[in-house]
Amino acid sequence: MSSKIEQMIDEIEEYIEGCKPQFMSTTNIIVNREEMDSLLRELRMKTPEEIKRYQKIISNKEAILNDAREKANAMIDEATAQTNELVSEHEIMQQAYEQANEVVSAATAQAQEILDNATIEANNLRQAALQYMDDLLAHLDGVLGEAIQKSTDHYEGLVGALNQYRDVVQSNRAELHPSEDAAEAAEGQEGGPDVI
């Protein structure tokens, strides 16, 4: 849709096209002055109105552009803030992850150290317990050996003493029955060869 000024210019151009050329000229034409003045006056009257309309469009355009710029800047600011927040959250997560890894590494190292120390201490206690048991068994072996030796010595003494008592008992019995022994001895002599 063309503006009123453009319509007026079109009308002026049509008027000029419709004018007769000047005699013996290809560029000059003959115009009706009153009609041309009328067209130009109408153009002048409509020009301020159109200019106002264009100024309004331009000012609206500026307002629209300013509003668009403000909205764009607000969106950029918001996106920047969100990006910074995400970056900050990412950095915090990275730091937390690194700290967690450090804690896990430290805990693992400490647990390994505790386990190693416990293993060494358990081995030392085992060795000490084995040594203690060996010492106790060696002492018991010595006590038993000594007891066996003493018991053997006492037993042999007891057996010797008992044999002596038995000999005494047998001797005493023999004294109680001298005739039986003599008779047995005589019988033994009769049946045997003569001794000279």
Describe it for me?
The chain has 196 residues and is mainly α. It has three helices and two strands. It has helices spanning 4-18, 33-176, 178-190; strands at 20-21, 29-30. Strands 1-2 form a two-stranded antiparallel sheet. Strand 1 (20-21) and strand 2 form a beta hairpin. Helix 1 (4-18) packs antiparallel against helix 2 (33-176). It is rod-shaped, with a radius of gyration of 73 Å. 0% of the residues are buried. The model has no long low-confidence stretch (mean pLDDT 81).
Layout of secondary structure:
Layout: H1 4-18, E1 20-21, E2 29-30, H2 33-176, H3 178-190
Antiparallel strand pairs: 1-2
Helix pairs in contact: 1-2
Placed side by side, the strands forming the largest sheet appear as 1-2
Biggest sheet character: 2 strands, antiparallel
Number of strands: 2
Helical segment tally?
A: 3
Share in β-strands: under 5%
Shape: rod-shaped
Low-confidence stretches: none
Assign the structural class, choosing from mainly alpha, mainly beta, alpha/beta, alpha+beta, or little secondary structure: mainly alpha
Helical residue percent?
A: over 70%
Summarize the helix and strand pattern as letters: HEEHH
Q: Work out the radius of gyration.
A: 73 Å
- End-to-end separation in angstroms reads 189 Å
Averaged pLDDT = 81
